[in-house]
Amino acid sequence: MANNKSDETNDVFSELDVDRLEVNVIESLCFSCGKNGTTRLLLTRIPYYKELVISSFDCPHCNYKNNQLDPAIEIKPQGVRMSLKIENKEDLDRYVITTDYTSIQVPDLDFEIPPMSQRSQVTTVEGIISKTVTNLSEQKKVLDLTHPELAAKMEVVINGLIGIKNLTKPIPMMVFEDATGNIFVSNPVAPLADPRMQTEMFTRDSAQNEMIGLSAQDNAQDNAQSMIKPLGTFNDSSVNNMNDEIVQFSGPCPNCQAICETNMKVTDIPYFKQVVIMATVCEECGYRTNEVKPGGGIEKQGLQITVKVSSPEDLNRDILKSETCSLRIPQLDFEVGALSLSGRFTTIEGLINSLYEQLKDTATAFYSGDSQSGSVIEKTEKFLAKLNNIKTCKMSVDIILTDPAGNSYVQSLTPPDLDPKLTITRFDRTEEQNEELGLNDIKVDNYEKI
Fold this sequence. Notes:
five-stranded antiparallel β-sheet; alpha+beta
């Protein structure tokens, strides 16, 4: 009897498969009346963004209903801030996906929707404005009777938001900030660079880490020690031999939190530096991830690498794109930020293939069925044809990597002599770039007194 009961318990939560798009139906408790209702779960993927769990609860006894959207992906290493200039109707129609931890600011009106004040949602910029105007208008009705001065200030904000919605305000700015790094605002001119939106990463402070449920700073050492414990004690010999062996350690899966194995290998790239390759595979949920981390920390200067691609030899060059590196192809008027493609060690052809697959998925899945985005699909198809021309050497282009951390690399074909198709330039980082890398908060003098 015990075994049968255990089997029934295991069958309550059937495995979610993003490729099958099946709705999982679960009987669950209604928090309104205390009786049982029905929860429906759908795991889906938005290409070029992430996987999401859409849940819907319905109670037939008290008619209570609840819908919510939750990310099915790990918290990013850094938060994300996206600043959007609203110039036309196209900007109001942009898709927006927020999490519980997203804040939305309108600097011109000195107005902010703080994090943890609304649930995750899929909407548009106009939808956010309309919902905010409705909520503020309801609050204003109460304040008109109790706090008329505050109601007058609220009316200024409401009128300002209506002006943005009607495009009568002079190019206002909306800022979307998310400490988890899991926010999405669509680009209406994809695959080209977005001319009216600036995306930047930032380092979370301790309050933001606690808000999103990460360990407090004083527990960081304990967590790190528990992660390393299965490895045993390192000695000088083991450190020196890390280039020759794969190190394995256990840790919680970012997706299901089950204990899984991560393989780590240190590799030397000639004429560059050491890199750390990490691969995680979870046997419980099938989650897989591959990461490439440059060794040696952040360089003293940023790095810009320009490589001319015109022959099969150029396509076979090794390339290391770090997670802080952006990529630009001037001939295609194309640019992807540091958040795209993540960190990877591949060839130029492999990098182009990755771009091709991501853009293709975006056009066919995310924009399909949207009549307003027909031009995006057409532009993407033309762009994909150009990427194919690059791969078959029918089109010569410059690929420009800009890495403020200085941790990216493109293989030279004529070492140790200068490569005529490769230009490497070092530059001093701006204050904003140092802030994104978390360098402005580092104390290097008298740090022992902190």
